[in-house]
Amino acid sequence: MMNADPMTYNPATPDKSGHFGQFGGRYVPETLMSSLIELERQYLAIVGDEQFRAELDGLLRDYAGRPTPLWNARRLSAELGGKCRIYLKREDLCHTGAHKINNTLGQALLARRLGKQRVIAETGAGQHGVATATAAALLELECDVFMGAEDIERQKLNVFRMELLGARVISVESGSGTLKDATNEAMRGWMARCDDTHYIIGSVVGPHPFPMIVRDFQSVIGSEARAQILEKEGRLPDVLMACVGGGSNAMGLFYPFRLDDKVEMYGVEAAGEGLETGRHAASICKGGVGVFHGSKSFVLQTPDGQITPAHSISAGLDYPGTGPEHSYFSSTGRARYTAVTDAEALEAVQLLCRTEGIIPALESAHAIAYAAKLAPDLPPDSLMILCLSGRGDKDVYSIARGLGKTI
Amino acid sequence: MNSRIARIFEQLQQRGERALIPYLTAGFPAPGFTLPLLDALVRGGADIIELGVPFSDPIADGPTIQRASQEALAAGTTLQGILEMVHEFRRKHDTPIVLFGAYNPFFHYGLERFAGDAARAGTDAVLVPDLPVEECAEAAHCLSDKGLHLICLVAPTTTSERKALIAQHASGFIYYISVKGVTGARNSASFKLDEPIRDLRRVTNLPVVVGFGIARPDQAAEVAQYADGVVVGSALIDLISANRGEKDLGARVEEYTRAMKAPLIPASASRN
User: Fold this and answer.
1) Would you list the domain boundaries of chain B?
2) Which of A31, A114, B50, B74 has the fewest CB atoms within 10 Å, i.e. is most exposed?
């Protein structure tokens, strides 16, 4: 556990200027500052508005399929020694197949309230792009999705889905042609048209107020899970477990438990081919403090302060940065961060398929893999909630390839 | 602060001139090009030079400077190496150097250590486009401690209230971004500068320079009606890129610099 920093956790974060301790902030060109300040002001007013809440809750319930079940994974628990009862928060059952829709519905509704007719988003594998295109179609917003040229080639199915939903997919040729470059381009695109466009960022990253906004919209995961476990077990869980790339599903699960001191939180990063190989995406475990995509957080970088490409079998975790609030949770010891390899994630996919009849997304499989390591060491009668952030249908080709099979 | 930058603007004002401020990505297309290109800019009449520190993931740069940065990095350019270039340059020239680049390389170098090394190399100022005044306290402190300016930016979207806030932090000169969006040469006939710059001058006595999108002498002339200086970036990078293999690259850069400077000199003076 990282505890080099003497900071203690302050639940009233971010502060007024968007900082989580030393992390977060707004490291953006002056051109965007007025928009960010205005967005924060309007967001705080809108999010407290009952009518907005009611409209969003209605969409989450009747359109996205919330609340998602909290599933007692008995066979998985038994397989892992039976000392720990593992509950799966079934975000994979949301419309579009992952938790991403919680944020995009919230932000698309926000965009409408802001009077913006156009939304833009960045996407890596395409999951956030599809979720944004979905919300935009529903709420009659024009939608442009920035996607790396390399990713467009690798994720043709999702490109087609977005187009089918009425979005325009804009190919980003710069840099490595992946998620980080798509994010750069989305920020540039927003800078040029911030007056008529809202940027629906896909994770708890970017300049303030984005990490706060995305956290708030994703907190529905933890709020539901907290009520559900109290109802089913009559007590709080001992352990929360979630995968972390940018970290929106993890923050969504963790945040509503932040004041429950006895609840331990584990964020699981992608160790790719192994932390020692340098080919991984473990920015908290292996990176340093840096400024990237508008905020200060842990990032993967060279000794000269250049951002290095990440690697993971899971496209959703393949990102060289992480949310500033996760860096803060790590530095204050409020949550622990660890990493599992591509191979361990593949094992975990099969474990969950075999025991529970659920094909998890490769991202979520990282959380399962670490749960499998931790569960046998927990005291008897432990309770764990694991965020099953997405379903694995999108990953079957990668999974097959990883297992040496052709389909 | 009696700095080289302050002195240059004083001299220019006495002569009724406007400053020409070319931007050059350090290490583009390779580190060996930079010192000869800097010489050419000085010969062509550059008053201040912005030396770009390349970054892997710049958010304020358009395609031209992004590509230049990628090439410079691929060719092995580092911040340390750039400081060595500045040191070499300073042995020959008095022209002020502004290091221009994203925050992370400076931050990662260590702000205090960077300020010391940059000052020793002969750097005059640092301009960090992704460091708004709200986040600049630590950097500003470290830099001013070593006698370096932290140049602040003002955008078309900056409110009057923010202009006043920025003016409080500004030092050296203020950089007004002429357009929304990223860096890059533009063909648009005119920039809306009159009112925003008048608004800015209400809250600052510092020189105001204008950049983003200025490529041609007629654009420089237009901007010079309102500003104390004109920044030329992407157009120069395009020129270098197109002529990188040519023996007379330096001469072409010098010629372009002179052509951009010409409209910034009063007619009576330029006839001499």
Assistant:
1) 4-265
2) B74
pTM for the whole structure:
0.95
Chain centre to alpha carbon of residue A284: 15
CB contact under 8 Å between A304 and B153, yes or no, is no
Please tell me the class of the B4-265 domain: alpha beta
Nearest in space to A135 (alpha carbons), one of A89, A200, A54, A195 = A200
Taking alpha carbons only, the member of A305, A302, A289 closest to residue A21 is A289
Q: Going by C-beta distance under 8 Å and a sequence separation of 6 or more, which residues neighbour residue A58?
A: none
First-to-last C-alpha distance (Å) of chain A: 41
Q: Report how far residue A267's alpha carbon sits from residue A330's, in angstroms, rounded to the nearest whole number.
A: 9
B103 touches chain A (CB under 8 A): yes
| DSSP secondary structure string for all residues of A223-268 | HHHHHHHHHHHSS--SEEEEE-SS-HHHHHHHGGGTT-TT-EEEEE
Instruction: Tell me whether residue A389 is one of the annotated catalytic residues.
Output: yes
* Residues 6+ positions from B199 with CB-CB distance below 8 Å: B160, B163
C-alpha B142 chain-centroid distance: 20
Tokens of B268: 């009576």
Residues A351-354: contacts with CB under 8 Å, at least 24 apart: A351/A76, A351/A79, A352/A76
| CA pair distance B101, B260, nearest whole angstrom | 23
Nearest residue to A179 (alpha-carbon basis) of B129, B182, B57, B64: B57
Q: Is A10 on the interface with B (CB under 8 A)?
A: no
How high is the ipTM of this complex?
0.95
Q: Do A33 and B157 touch (CB under 8 A)?
A: yes
Task: Give the contacts of B270 (CB within 8 A, at least 6 positions apart).
Answer: B262
State both tokens at B230: 């004109």
Q: From residue B136, how far is each of A196, A390, B105, B211 by CA, in Å?
A: 29, 39, 15, 21
The pLDDT tens digits of the residues spanning A72-121 come to 999 999 999 999 999 999 999 999 999 999 999 999 999 999 999 999 99
In a mutational test of the B interface, the residue from A304, A308, A319 whose CB has the highest number of chain B CBs within 10 Å is A304
Residue B76, SS3? coil
Distance CA A364, CA A292 (A): 25
- Give residue for tokens 């030396």: B51
Strands A84-90 and A382-388: parallel
Count CB-CB contacts under 10 A for residue A261: 9
In 3D space, the residue among A10, A36, A12, A41 whose CA is nearest the CA of residue A25 turns out to be A36
Please say if A283 is a catalytic residue.
no
As beta bridge partners, residue A168 has: A144
